[in-house]
Specification:
The protein is of the alpha/beta class and 338 residues long. The chain folds into two domains: 2-141 and 306-337, Medium-chain alcohol dehydrogenases, catalytic domain (Quinone Oxidoreductase, Chain A, domain 1, Alpha-Beta Complex); 147-283, 3-Layer(aba) Sandwich (Rossmann fold). The protein has ten helices and 15 strands. Strands 3, 4, 5, 6, 7, 14 and 15 form a seven-stranded mixed β-sheet that branches. A six-stranded parallel β-sheet has the order 10-9-8-11-12-13, with helices on both faces. The longest helix has 15 residues, at 142-156. The mean pLDDT is 96. The structure holds NADP nicotinamide-adenine-dinucleotide phosphate. NADP nicotinamide-adenine-dinucleotide phosphate binds at residues 40-42, 144-145, 148, 168-174, 192-194, 197, 212, 237-238, 241-242, 259-263, 284-286, 325, 328. NADP nicotinamide-adenine-dinucleotide phosphate (NAP) is lined by residues 40-42, 144-145, 148, 168-174, 192-194, 197, 212, 237-238, 241-242, 259-263, 284-286, 325, 328.
Amino acid sequence: MRVMELRDDWGLEHLRLAERPQPEPGPGQVLIAMKAASLNFRDTVMVQRGYGRRSGELPLVPVSDGAGEVVAVGDGVTRVKAGDVVCPAFWQLWITGPLKEDYWPGMLGGPHDGVLQEFMVLDASGVVKAPKGYDFRQAATLPCAAITAWSAVVTQGQVKSGDVVVIQGTGGVSLFALQFAKMHGARVIATSSSAAKLARLEALGADHVINYAEDENWGRTARALAGGGGVDLVVEVGGARSLEQSLRAVRVDGMIGMIGVLSGGLAELNLGLVVTRNIRLQGITIGNRDMLEEMIRAINQNGLDPVIDERVYAFDAAAEALGALPEGRHFGKICIEY
Ligand SMILES: NC(=O)c1ccc[n+]([C@@H]2O[C@H](COP(=O)([O-])OP(=O)(O)OC[C@H]3O[C@@H](n4cnc5c(N)ncnc54)[C@H](OP(=O)(O)O)[C@@H]3O)[C@@H](O)[C@H]2O)c1
């Protein structure tokens, strides 16, 4: 079978098409014919060994998120059957309950081999059925970006009707956060550095938009738009350069879901605000398999159309697709079809 792998060295320039033997499912395992992948910012960091030791060892098949069709199951598998459209969970070992250190080796796309391979064998416990009616591309968008947004908005943020939520930029996580916040009846303030993308955010249901490149005090603007002392939740992907604004936007007793550090991971902050305003700074690191299934139940009930960038890449153009992500010209998820 064909795989895209890093074998000789780390770095996008070393990502190569290669052949590996097709795996067979053992007891409790599932053989999946992979059909599509979607990219996350993490994948571009991972191919550079940007997470150090936690990136794992070479050879490595990168990219965490994908979807495919079950072609065979081993003895004792009841969760899925041949013909089902499924997604591998991002965390193969974090099935339920709180996150534990022991689960790190099970992260797909590093250190565990990822989805850029034509067939994958995984334990059935780490595989979920895609939402009804989803094609492979749509299903491939869910395991990392969507569950991260779900965790911030629903599991941790507990957003309810009438709440006000800030999302930052138009990356995969932020667009899912917008959609989940709207699904739960919230008012959404969305930011982007691009006027054209702001218009698309409005078309997706954002109630207010702010250009964060033009309005450096966007936190104050968001607070004023929210009324009532500020926003209930900020879905933070900006990091160093945006966290101070997020602290200004959020209400007393509100929450900032710390997801990404796109503008840097070291910030000088007025931490007094966190204390005196009783703000919850909540780290989010994706979510477990049970949360993925809970999210899919909600999608089956309410509907949700993942936002996918118009440019879709071929399997052997994975390096090009990974190179396009940091350029930031996309809107929604960058997908690869096999
Ligand atoms: N903690 C977790 O579990 C988890 C899971 C997934 C992702 N993440 C992290 O979340 C972040 C977003 O990931 P993604 O996959 O959604 O990325 P992505 O699709 O590459 O998103 C990039 C977009 O973010 C916006 N952006 C860039 N710099 C920004 C800044 N300084 N402030 C606000 N927005 C900014 C830009 O939007 P505009 O072009 O509209 O300005 C850009 O197009 C990354 O840091 C990633 O590592 C964390």
